């Protein structure tokens, strides 16, 4: 009997506030979709960082007779200088075990020809113009400054290059977009919270006399609040289902069908990351429904 009453009361509430309920569903749909996209954007940035930072090498280019670096004196690097540079690199605590690789002029020239095989510049460059170098992998790619400082300016060192100086601006831009998406999603979640509060407030006000009678005859607070709670939860779940579906469709068509096929060098978010994001979205949707319902209906439970 009680269950029939609760379901009947739920149906009456939905019919009375159909337009408001639809507005709540749409607001939650949009806000949770953007929130889930922001979560996946964070996952994607982390994957890209992990993928590229693990491959980062510090390149120590050695002097040629035409080099103008601080450690050059207008002559080719000597064998003694190369040995000293290699010793400093290998004994640095941030250098990975077996993480030092040398590249001779001939190897550098072969790499140059492969890289610019379709360019006329290849015919204007000779092997003698190439620079010998050491390529160094680090234990922790975040700790690159110590090694750069240790080898910069050593006799025989022309320049020291680190890919982080090119990748960091990219990741900062991606992080900025991620923060912007999270802020936008947060504002929409606040809007959804206020929308649910207003809907429940109007429904409770319209039935304040019924609530007062039920309170006088001894009905518990939870029993009185339950129809309102179910109404809010139902709207939140419908919006969350639409949002999760939107996220899965977006990941499938944008990431799996296009991005993964076009940019194979990157590691992209997939089903595991999307599943985690959708779980968080559903939980957030339920929180948006439960908290404002309990807070809004409390004032009508006093006799």
UniProtKB/TrEMBL annotation:
One of its GO terms (biological process) is cell division. It is found in: Cell membrane. Residues 56-160 form the FtsX extracellular domain. It is a multi-pass membrane protein. The chain crosses the membrane at residues 21-41, 179-205, 226-255, 275-295. Keywords: Cell cycle, Cell division, Cell membrane, Membrane, Transmembrane, Transmembrane helix. Gene3D superfamilies: 3.30.70.3040. One of its GO terms (cellular component) is plasma membrane. It comes from the Bacteria. InterPro entries: ABC3_permease_C, FtsX, FtsX_actino, FtsX_ECD. Residues 184-302 form the ABC3 transporter permease C-terminal domain. NCBIfam families: FtsX_actino (NF038346). PANTHER family: CELL DIVISION PROTEIN FTSX (PTHR47755). Belongs to the ABC-4 integral membrane protein family. FtsX subfamily. Part of the ABC transporter FtsEX involved in cellular division. Forms a membrane-associated complex with FtsE. This is Cell division protein FtsX. It comes from Kribbella jiaozuonensis. The lineage of its organism: Bacteria, Bacillati, Actinomycetota, Actinomycetes, Propionibacteriales.
């Amino acid at each position: 009997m009680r269950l029939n009453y609760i379901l009947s009361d739920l149906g009456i509430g939905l019919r009375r506030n159909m337009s408001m309920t639809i507005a709540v569903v749409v607001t939650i749909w949009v806000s949770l979709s953007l929130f889930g996209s922001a979560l996946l954007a964070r996952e994607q940035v982390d994957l890209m960082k992990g993928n590229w930072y693990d491959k980062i090498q510090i390149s120590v280019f050695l002097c040629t007779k035409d080099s103008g670096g601080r450690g050059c004196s207008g002559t080719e690097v000597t064998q003694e200088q190369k040995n000293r540079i290699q010793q400093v690199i290998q004994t640095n605590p941030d250098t990975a075990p077996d993480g030092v690789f040398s590249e001779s002029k001939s190897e550098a020239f072969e790499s140059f020809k492969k890289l610019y095989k379709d360019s006329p510049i290849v015919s204007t460059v000779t092997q003698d113009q190439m620079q010998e170098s050491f390529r160094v992998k680090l234990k922790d790619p975040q700790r690159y400054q110590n090694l750069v400082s240790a080898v910069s300016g050593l006799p025989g060192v022309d320049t020291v290059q680190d890919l982080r100086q090119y990748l960091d601006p990219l990741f900062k831009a991606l992080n900025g977009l991620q923060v912007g998406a999270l802020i936008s999603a947060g504002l929409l979640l606040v809007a959804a919270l206020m929308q649910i509060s207003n809907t429940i407030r109007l429904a409770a006000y319209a039935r304040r006399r019924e609530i007062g009678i039920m309170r006088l005859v001894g009905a518990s607070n939870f029993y009185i609040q339950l129809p309102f709670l179910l109404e809010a939860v139902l709207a939140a779940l419908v919006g969350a289902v639409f949002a999760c579906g939107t996220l899965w469709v977006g990941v499938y068509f944008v990431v799996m069908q296009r991005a993964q096929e076009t940019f194979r060098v990157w590691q992209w978010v997939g089903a595991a990351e999307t599943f985690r994001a959708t779980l968080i979205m559903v939980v957030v949707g339920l929180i948006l429904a439960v908290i404002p319902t309990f807070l809004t209906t409390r004032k009508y439970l006093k006799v």
